[in-house]
Backbone:
């Protein structure tokens, strides 16, 4: 089977000054995942590698460069899911880990549970020999400045409305040459969130879903809206009913928009290896592998007046 891969580095109103680095970041992630897939690697390894690279990229809100919460702390969420078995591993509100997607993979493979949070997740990471880090290693000046700005607005709370402070997430979905699909998502969550707040990203079916019978999807956007419509599962269910990846992505975003009024984006691969994406935000940072094996990376722009 011909492999397929699509990754994203957020959908929102993406700060102009980050466009070049963001496109380079999603391209590098797609290249790394694709190299693995074309060498016969698994979809699971490809999405983990692509997401881990985006976590290492300080421009993106995942791993290094993550958003600070109301108390100036970084708490990270991630999920990985294997479409062969429906096995999944997820972490939420974990501190002091550079690559939460790798921890999610360890949980999927080595823990008797599927989702670990906070201190328990961190202790599991330590037990498995993962390197723990100080918060300073995850913190970038852009986010410290944003935190200070938001602190001055005493009543500020993140909402689902479009604002200059994005709801960043990174994600990847893939199909490998054995016909297996996988999905992974990682995020620092919304800016200035309450401590302990968990968004859609680590929630199975909301932040990601993968099932060989239906395809795989990964989402980004306002978590409190996305989880209400179980956005990733809404897309893979649609693909299972026969929609193409692109139709399923557009359908899921329509459901998000019509049922919650919330904003977000989604990437989908269907079991035939077609990829698609959709968003009702102004922009989405995206990279995918075309029919000819070349990588397309861009900040996709909503067509003026386009209705989702
Ligand atoms: N989609 C990221 C979040 O809401 O946390």
Residues:
């Amino acid at each position: 089977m011909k492999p397929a891969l699509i990754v994203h580095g957020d959908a929102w109103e993406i700060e102009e000054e980050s466009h070049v680095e963001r496109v380079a970041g999603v391209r590098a992630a797609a290249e790394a995942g694709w190299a693995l897939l074309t060498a016969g690697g698994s979809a699971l390894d490809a999405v983990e590698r692509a997401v881990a690279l985006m976590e290492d990229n300080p421009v993106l809100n995942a791993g290094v460069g993550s958003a600070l919460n109301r108390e100036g702390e970084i708490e990270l969420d991630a999920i990985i899911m294997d479409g062969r078995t429906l096995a999944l591993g997820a972490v939420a509100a974990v501190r002091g880990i550079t690559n939460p997607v790798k921890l999610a993979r360890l949980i999927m493979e080595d823990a008797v549970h599927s989702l670990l949070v906070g201190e328990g997740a961190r202790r599991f990471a330590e037990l498995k020999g993962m390197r723990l880090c100080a918060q300073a290693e995850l913190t970038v000046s852009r986010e410290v400045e944003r935190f200070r700005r938001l602190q001055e607005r005493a009543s500020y709370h993140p909402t689902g409305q479009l604002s200059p402070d994005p709801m960043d997430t990174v994600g990847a979905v893939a199909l490998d040459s054995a016909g297996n699909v996988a999905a992974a998502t990682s995020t620092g969550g919304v800016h200035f969130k309450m401590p302990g707040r968990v968004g859609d990203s680590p929630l199975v079916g909301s932040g990601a879903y993968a099932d060989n019978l239906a395809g795989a999807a990964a989402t980004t956007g306002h978590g409190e809206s996305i989880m209400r419509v179980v956005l990733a599962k809404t897309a893979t269910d649609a693909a299972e009913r026969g929609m193409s990846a692109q139709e399923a992505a557009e359908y899921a975003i329509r459901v998000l928009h019509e049922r919650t009024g919330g904003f977000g984006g989604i990437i989908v691969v269907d079991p035939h290896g077609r990829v698609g994406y959709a968003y009702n935000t102004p922009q989405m940072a995206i990279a995918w592998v075309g029919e000819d094996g070349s990588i397309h990376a861009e900040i996709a722009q909503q067509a003026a007046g386009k209705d989702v």
Notes: The CA atoms of residues 221 and 264 lie 4 Å apart. The chain is about 30% helix and 25% strand. The first strand starts at residue 4 and ends at 12. The longest helix spans residues 19-38.
